[in-house]
Known about the structure:
By secondary structure, this protein is mostly helical. It has one domain (2-182): Rhomboid-like (Rhomboid-like fold). The protein has 8 helices and 2 strands. The chain has a two-stranded antiparallel ribbon with strand order 1-2. Mean pLDDT is 83; it is low at 223-228.
Amino acid sequence: MKQERELEFSLLVVIYPLFFAIIIWSVYWMELLTGEDLTRLGIMPRKLSGVPGIILSPFIHSSLEHLWNNTLPLIILSSALFYFYRKISWKVLIYGLLISGMLTWLIGRQAYHIGASGMIYTLVSFIFFKGIMAGNYRLIALSLLVVFLYGSMIWYVIPVNDEISWEGHLSGALAGLFLAFVYRTQVLQPYRYQWEREDYNEESDPFLQQFDEDGNFIGTGEGEKSDDDNIAKPKGHLRIKYHYREKED
């Protein structure tokens, strides 16, 4: 089936996310090694000097805790993206990066916004809304799993902590929702049973042929007849007969 081919596992599903993780960890390691603070390369809203941060900010983190908190969700969500949405995965990543970054540049506070959390919110939002809109049971299950794992992240799209870029989170969530609508048709199609197809013919259905017009089961008519009744029995099957007699006192 076409869906099964689209969901064939590839090592790239794991290699790409691990590659992303290696890059952000390498950048942080380089900061520690050189003593250089790359925060200035983050997004500074409504400043021309902050424009490069739209692309660079996801690779910069302020602390080891910040980096670790972003690494695992980034690997898990990007792996899900490459597996279930491989045809549009790179478009979602690139456009999500640009859209979330530009929105943060427009609405953010006057401070440097850094970290991959904007991309994480983009992926969470995209995977959730796309799965719901697609109507495919696999994608719906994925959406519910994302809600179960990362549903609590919704609180961080509002200003609950001054040290957290809620603007970046909100921008990522909006970017994911936007991309879910843009690519609403480029996903696995809802599973359709045989009787739901336009070319379905009841008369040629092997299952329905086992019933008469009144809905009574009549079997397929194939097989061989037994010697003592008119019941058809399938070829190659063992027929067992039971006999009993009353116990004599």
